[in-house]
Amino acid sequence: MKGSDSHLAEVRAYHQRSKHQPQRYAAGPGQLDWESQPNPFRRYAGAPVVSLPLLADTLATPFADLDTPDCVPPRPFDAAQVALLFELALGLAAWKEYQGVRWALRCNPSSGNLHPTEGYAILPSLEATWPAGPLTYAARGPLAAGVYHYSSRDHILEARLRHPLFAEQLPRSTFLVGLSSVHWREAWKYGERSYRYCQLDVGHAVAAVRYAAAALGWKATLLLDPADADISALLGLRQNATPEAEHEHPDLLLLIQTDAGPRSHLPRERILTLLQGITTERWQGVPNALSRTHAHAWPIIDQVAIAAGKPATSEGIWHPDPLPPLDSDPTAAGPHAATLIRQRRSGQSYDPTATLPAIDFFRLLDPLLPRAGVPPWDALPWSPRIHPVFFVHRVVGLDPGIYLLVREAESQPLLKATLSAAFAWEKPAGCPEHLPFFMLTRRDMQGSAQALSCHQEIAADGIFSLGMLADYAAALQAGAWHYRRLFWEAGMLGQLLYLEAERIGRRGTGIGCFFDDSFHDLLGLADDRFQSLYHFTVGQAIEDERLTTLPAYAFHGAT
Ligand SMILES: Cc1cc2nc3c(=O)[nH]c(=O)nc-3n(C[C@H](O)[C@H](O)[C@H](O)COP(=O)(O)O)c2cc1C
C-alpha cells in the first residue's frame, strides 16, 4: 500500500474502532485515575511573562454587528487589543464551586472541561501600554516580536522566542494565532475516542478566535498550506521538551488581519524563511508535566495522529455563493459580543416543556450557511462538508420529526441518493426561500434522540437536538488529514450554535457521546459515505442552583 493509502486505511480503522455502540462503548479507562488527572493549564517555567490587561468589559461591539461584513470598525493593532482577543477567545469566563471543589470555565468549551487546546501568538513588535490594574503590572513601551504561549489561568503571554524576523515575515497589520493539542488531557478520561474530542475542541477554538477577532473588527483565516511539521517548528513545540512533559500536537495557524483592507495572505515560503532564520536560536521556558503518572498509554491515539498528520500542500481558496444578508435587526439593542461570549455555558439539564417559535428557529439556522465576511465561516477557506440533521422536538409551527439543512448545494443529490428512500424532502411552510432546509420524516424523536446520545436526557429535553453529518468518504479521499478538518468544521458549527442559542435566551450543549451507527441506521445510511461526527442540543436550560459562580479572574495570582 502507498504511504497515503495506508494512512487513510489507519484513519478509517480508527474511526470505526472509536465508535460507541449501545452494547459496546469505545475503549476507555473504565474507572478514572484521579492521581493522574492532567493539569488543564500548561506553563513554560523560566519563560519571561507578560501580564495582560483584562479589557472585555470595555468592548461595546453589539453581537448583532458581527452579522454584517465590515460593520465593526477595526480596533488599533497593539498588545492591549491582542490581549482582548485572547481574553474573549481562550480566556477564563468564570469559576464554579461546589462542596469545596473549584473549576474554571472558559470562553471556549471543551469535552469534559479538560481543555486539550493550547494557544500561541506569533507577533510583530507591538506597542504595549496599559495602566497597572488590580491584576496586571503596568506596561509601557514595545512588546518584542516573537512567539508567545497564552496561559488562560493567569491571562499572560509567556515569551518563548523573541526575534525580529517574526516582524519582517508577517504581512503588514497581521499576526498569527497557533493552536496545538495535548491529546493526553482527553485520553486520560475518554480513552480511544478522545482524539475526536481533541479535534472538535480545536474547531470550537477556531470559531472562538474568529468571533473574538470579529468583535474587534479584525479578520481571521485558517492557513491551508503549512505542514504540521512547519507549525510545530514555528510554535517551538519540541523546544526544551522533557520526557515528562506531555507532547503537544500541532494543529493549525490562523492569520489575524487587523486592518480593513482586502484579505492578506501568508505564503508557506515566508514561514520556511522564518524557520530557517531561527534554527540556532535558544527557546525560553520548559513545559510543565501535566500528570504525575500515565496509567494508560492509548497507543492508537499516537498512531492516528501520525496517520492524520498533514503534509505541506498548495490548495485553492473557496468562496461562498452570495446569499441574502442575515436578518438581524440593527435597531434592536441586543447584547454586546463580549457579554454573550463570556456568558456562554453548556446546559446541564433542560426544561422538557420549553418551546421556540419557528421564526426564531429559522433565524438561528441561517448563520449556519457560509457568507463572505461573516464569522465564523469566513475563517474556513473550504466548501462546507457538514450537514446538520435536526431532531425537532418542540418548535412551534414545525411538526416534530427529522429535518436536514444542506449546507452545500452540490451535496444535495448525493444526500438524496444515500439517505433513506422513504424520506419526504419537504420544504416546511414559512422556511425562508434561500434556506435548503427539508423535513425528512414526521415523528416524535425525543426517545430516539436520548437513546442515540448515550441515553443523555439533554438530547430529548432540548427544544431540538442534532447530529452533524459529514461528507466523510469524499473528504478523506483528498488526504487522511481531512479527517481532522471535518471535526474542526463540526466543532465550529457547535460554537456557532452555543452563541446563537445564547443570543435568543436559550442554551446549548455539545454532545460527543453518541452511538454512531445507530444514528446512521436511523437515516438509512448503509456505508461510510456520510458519517456523523458530533451531536448538539439547544433548549431552555435549568440552572443548577447548588453551584456557586465566581468571577473569571477572582483567583488571579493565587497558586
Ligand atoms: C466536543 C465536546 C463534546 C461534549 N460532549 C458532551 C456530552 O456528551 N454530554 C454533556 O453533557 N456535555 C458535553 N459537552 C459539554 C462539556 O462538558 C462542557 O463544554 C464543559 O464541561 C465546559 O463547560 P462550559 O461549556 O459550560 O464551558 C461537550 C463539549 C464539547 C466541546
Structure description:
- It is built from 16 helices and 22 strands.
- The chain has 559 residues and is of the alpha+beta class.
- The strands form 6 sheets. It has a 7-stranded antiparallel sheet with strand order 2-9-8-5-10-12-11. The chain has a 6-stranded antiparallel sheet with strand order 18-17-15-19-21-20, with helices on both faces. A 3-stranded antiparallel sheet has the order 4-3-22.
- β8 and β9 form a beta hairpin.
- α4 crosses α5.
- The chain is globular, with a radius of gyration of 22 Å.
- Flavin mononucleotide binds next to α5 and β20.
What is the fold's blueprint, element by element?
Blueprint: H1 3-17, E1 44-45, E2 49-51, H2 79-89, E3 92-98, E4 101-106, E5 117-123, E6 126-127, E7 142-143, E8 146-151, E9 156-162, H3 165-169, E10 174-181, H4 183-190, H5 194-215, E11 219-222, H6 228-235, E12 249-257, H7 268-277, E13 286-287, H8 299-307, H9 337-343, E14 356-357, H10 358-365, E15 386-392, E16 395-396, E17 401-405, H11 412-418, E18 437-442, H12 446-452, H13 458-461, E19 464-471, H14 472-477, H15 482-503, E20 507-511, H16 516-522, E21 530-539, E22 548-550
Parallel strand pairs: 14-16
Antiparallel strand pairs: 1-13, 2-9, 3-4, 3-22, 5-8, 5-10, 6-7, 8-9, 10-12, 11-12, 15-17, 15-19, 17-18, 19-21, 20-21
Helix pairs in contact: 1-8, 2-5, 4-5, 5-15
The chain binds flavin mononucleotide.
Flavin mononucleotide binds next to helix 5 and strand 20.
